[in-house]
Design brief:
Arc Repressor Mutant, subunit A, Rossmann fold, globular, alpha/beta, 54% helix, single chain, 5 strands, 16 helices, 287 residues
Length: 287
Amino acid sequence: MSVAAFLPARLLTHVKHVFADEPEFLIASSWQELESFIRRKPVSVVVLDPAADGTMNVEAVAGLLKRYPSLPLIAYVTLHAPQFSAVAQLGRLGLKEVVLHRFDDAPEGFKERVERVEGNALTHDVIEGLRERLGLLPRQLSVAVENLFEQPHRYSSALDLATEAGIAVVSVYRNIDAAQLGSPKRLLIAAKVLRGFGYLRDPGYTVLDVSVKLGYKTARIFSQHWVAVFGLTPARVRTRLTDSAAVESVLAWLKASGDDSSLGDDPGHRPGHNGSRRLRHRRPESS
């Protein structure tokens, strides 16, 4: 989970405590910096106060809601009339989540609420579509593949999957092939273009923004991967493809056999260069 926050000092102190164990916690000092984070970082949820800089700015929040409608925004405010008036206005513009300081912001509940709203429906649908094939993988590798789709910006090669699963790279290739999941390279590309499709549904992102968010070094390779999976460039996909069609395309592409050598390589940023990973793990099954 990657959280971006723009809050006054008192509220920020509490939110930093709530997300103390999250390696990707971004603190904005202005509305401009917050939007820069949204456009270029893999932000999964934003926590903000409309008066974060000392001046009530409903217009700034309304602009974010309009430009990034799929990005979960949570207003974290104090129990005062100006904040309530602002939240009421923003509620009519699409704001759905509000947390009140000292009323419903207990750390555990606050974090659970954020985790609940940051889920990605496209990712869920693809993972469910792959469920049977994922069941053919060793458990640790199956979890690693799910994490890949949930945090695609953190992966750049089969070695990342092998390291997370605690198995040899050759075992990653062998098991993924046996499960008819294409190849590690195809899984990496599928996860990234799927998340990119989700981003590009929002009018605030450019193709370059999304390629940077996903760790690509060049937008050219990013576009090539889109054509491979969807048969269309990113600019055309964002206006011509429905969510269900995108999910079906990803699932079909993973199942199809093909020559991966024609797919451009762009290793992007190594996870070690972006900070540590905090990944979802499952309890070992009892023997």
